[in-house]
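Figure 2 data, in text form.
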Amino acid sequence: MAHKEPGQLQRLVKTLDDSASLFFIHIDLKSDIKPFTSLIHQDNVFFIEERVNCIWGDYSQVKATLNLLERALESQNKGPIIFLSGQDYPIKSKEDIDAYLSTHADYDFINYVLSPIDKNSKLFNDRVAKYKVNLSDRRGDYILLSPFGTSLKNWLKVLSALLLGKVKRAELLSKIINARECRFTEHHKGTNWWCFSTATAQKIFRYYQANRAYLEQYYQYTLCADEQFFHTILKELMHEDKSIKTLPNLHFIDWSRKNVPLPVSFQKEDLTLLLSQNENKLFARKFESALDTEILDLMDTHIK
């Protein structure tokens, strides 16, 4: 999934291309796709046509991911399906990546909090109980509405009319929110980067297809749905399917650094940190070519 820096995406594909892998790419609908397709046009690269206007913290991120997953499954190739962003980069060689995935072929890789989201927590209130309604597609331009008692409908009409300035839209919003329901007894949260076996990916996608109307009705009004959707479905499947086993995801992401935008955008000074990651960390996120391309040159030298 990418939205900028076509040259960096081309480099990512080239670095990972082992002639046996297929690459399915979603370019954000807001972005011009031509700079990407003009640079990247190998036979094993497929830019999917079902593009989505991706909004931060929104169900649109999940929809784009599902479109990618559907296209990958339609290829009928076997093997692990790895979800990456255009700002990821490998920190292990292709051979090391293949070897690790081969020796752990019975596992899926995803990070999630082991316990369900606490129903008494602020996190549950914001991510599950409240309704996220976008005011535009700009990052952070949304409101969270709380359902409270029988006066919800009238309250929503007033509030949304004030915020949106259009009574008609306010009435529609009220109907949508009143129709929203949640069937999950447990909600799970984690990072949105994963690696699933073909078998597990098929199970998740079949679950989505069988429950599509409900899932889309619910998650399209959920804050940061991309950090819950696959995690909650996977845990639901695991209650019955004991063959699904998970390990932590394959990404190294640094959220711990002080006084910098997070997650950290790695630069040349981070080379030792990146190379010292355990064998299960195959990729790092994130990299910004506009900020520092030397770190990518250094990684290329060390992982080949």
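Caption note: The domain at 6-115+186-303 is CATH 3.90.550 (Spore Coat Polysaccharide Biosynthesis Protein SpsA; Chain A).
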